[in-house]
Amino acid sequence: MTEAILLVGGKGTRLRPLTVHTPKPMVPAAGVPFLTHQLARARAAGVEHIVLATSYLAEVFEPYFGDGSELGLHLEYVTEEEPLGTGGAIRNVASRLHSAPEDPVLIFNGDILTGLDIRALVATHETSGADVSLHLTRVEDPRAFGLVPTDGTGRVQAFLEKPQTPEEIVTDQINAGAYVFRRSVIDTIPEGRPVSVERETFPELLASGAHLQGMVDSTYWLDLGTPQAFVRGSADLVLGRAPSPAVPGRRGDRLVLPTAEVAADAKLTGGTVVGAGARIGEGARISGSAVLEGAVVEPGAVVTDSLIGAGARIGARTVLSGAVIGDGARVGADNELRDGVRVWCGAELGDGSVRFSSDQ
């Protein structure tokens, strides 16, 4: 298998304000755009050609990754004029594929951090003779996901989108967002209109008698759709809990990129990453957080499980816990922001103006 499609067109609405100026796959995780980790893992699994299906802020991707040669890849970019959904995006890039009709094509979403054994998924697809194979994982609470029950051989029996009642929850197996398609199946997806693979393509294939195979792989898996999940994913990459060959440094409690400045008595723990040009002041304590490029954390600030956007400034002695600070925002001294608070890009909070706020 030598090629793949990477779906990176989503607006990342749940991740705002992180995605106001940056498409979700380009938000830094463990020091590099999240997409870098996905591309590097695909290359390590033997993928050579990847087509990126772009839409929102599409102009950002190619200037950063170019033709992919630095990663040992051949990258191409296809931009949707109007959002086409997962299935529509796959169909929209089909003309860029080089595979023969019976060849496997790997497809994965640009917002999933996973330790999936990509080679094993492809091998399962080939040995089972499936038309489409899906990566499945098990979760404790599947209500926010699409359930995928399978028989004893792993053959998919149904697709149940986001069940809510106990009677609907017939399995803990969910669609984990990575697939292998037989190349010819991609051409059966309707062209030029929005299509959801989850709600339309897969159920219709199943109804027509197509062979859909599930492979349960319960290694690390995290949907990075919320700021809290994104911060956790970045920390897990730094700590080595989530695998990636693209982490730019040694794994451990902290990752400090070149040109960042950290005071000698500042304490960085829990997989904290400090981006290039960022500055951490004296006595600051930062745990499980991401401080992006050029941000400043002033002396005595305490930051836990939070993300501080590029060029933002956190005032002295301010406490952040589970907060997201947008690019270029200013939070004055002696504030306290907790429990999912989001400060918009470029916003300014004066000294001591906020002691606490609930999720917004």
UniProtKB/TrEMBL annotation:
**Could you tell me which residue ranges the Nucleotidyl transferase domain spans?**
4-236
- What InterPro entries does the entry give? GMPPB_C (IPR056729), Mannose-1P_guanyltransferase (IPR050486), NTP_transferase_dom (IPR005835), Nucleotide-diphossugar_trans (IPR029044)
Q: Which residues form the signal peptide?
A: none
List the Pfam families hit by this protein, alphabetically: GMPPB_C, NTP_transferase
Mannose-1-phosphate guanyltransferase C-terminal domain residues: 252-333
Q: Which family does it belong to?
A: Belongs to the transferase hexapeptide repeat family.
Name the chain's protein.
Answer: NDP-sugar synthase
